[in-house]
Amino acid sequence: MGKRIVPHQLRHTYASEMLRSGVEFLSIMKLLGHASPEMTMLYLDIALTDLQREFRAARSEPRHLAPQPKTQVASARASLDGVVDSLRTTQHVVEMFRRTLPNGDTRRCLDRVSNRLTKILAIARKLGTPEK
Q1: Beta carbons of 15 and 44 less than 8 angstroms apart
Q2: How far is 125 from 87, CA to CA, in rounded Å?
Q3: Going by C-beta distance under 8 Å and a sequence separation of 6 or more, which residues neighbour residue 44?
């Protein structure tokens, strides 16, 4: 014999499907008429596949990253400013690649490279300031 389905279960399905469709949590809370986030959480069925999808999306389009430098290789200048721009671009590319790696030796090595690039950039910028 099959499982008995009651109309109230459709509210749970509705809430879960809205979340999977990209509707904001607070909007779902309002649509369900809930006063507290805790109550809405009781209605949501968040499966492992949902968590995996969100994790992959966060890794492919991270929102917390610094914007990419505007310097392009074609516009590189043969001057100290050009060197600084190139170093900033290199540092950005290293950081973007480092963040895609799992924790381990390669990621730690790239951490050190990024730190060294930061120090080199600081020195290069000082070279451009006039001495007193």
Answers
A1: yes
A2: 11
A3: 12, 15, 16, 19, 28
Sign of CA dihedral 66, 71, 72, 77: negative
Q: Is the separation of the CB atoms in 65 and 100 below 8 Å?
A: no
The per-residue pLDDT for range 19-39, each reduced to its tens digit, is: 888 888 899 999 999 999 888
- Write out pLDDT tens, residues 88-106: 888 888 888 888 888 889 9
Q: At what angle do helices 25-32 and 8-20 cross, to 10 degrees?
A: 160
Residue 69: band (very low, low, confident or very high) from pLDDT cuts 50, 70, 90: low
Burial class of residue 95 (count of CB atoms within 10 Å of its CB; 0-12, 13-18, 19+): middle
Q: Could you give the C-alpha distances from 45 to 11, 41, 75, in angstroms and in order?
A: 11, 8, 51
Structure tokens at 114: 């990024």
DSSP, residue by residue, 12-74:
HHHHHHHHHTT--HHHHHHHHT-SSHHHHHHH----HHHHHHHHHHHHHS-SSSPPPPS--GG
Which of 53, 37, 124 lies closest to 86 in space, CA to CA?
124
